[in-house]
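Listing S7. Sequence submitted for prediction.
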Amino acid sequence: MARDKQPEAAAEAEGTPERSYREQLDYLNPIAQPLASRKLTRKLYKCIRKAAKHKQIRRGVKEVQKFINKGEKGITVLAGDTLPIDVYCHIPIMCEDRSLPYAYVPSKSDLGAAAGSKRPTCVIMIKPHEEYQETYDECLEEVGALPLPL
């Protein structure tokens, strides 16, 4: 019996087991529109990893809100499983007012991991940079093509 518990303890020490995209959709908020597809979600995470390497991201509600108000441009990525919704429900409205593209991804823990953090993150803004401009433009085009909520 003692040997059975060791692998479980090791799995818990590493963190929660990764859930598939389908399983993550069960935990979405009702306001999580427009939701990125599985393919676009992967592209956004890749772009976030590259941007984090060059320190070109804004992470967290306060920081993203501050730089949206200052007029900074970029793609805003929001986590769809953040509760309570009141924490960040004003960010999409701010983005729409300033014609900034935004999209929801299913998981805040995956969003934080893509940014190189151990902590979950509910909002990230990706700023453009010449080092990853091709990936950024691809994401910008696809996020811009997503239908806005009514």
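Caption to Listing S7: primary sequence and predicted structure tokens for the chain studied. The radius of gyration is 16 Å. The mean pLDDT is 86.
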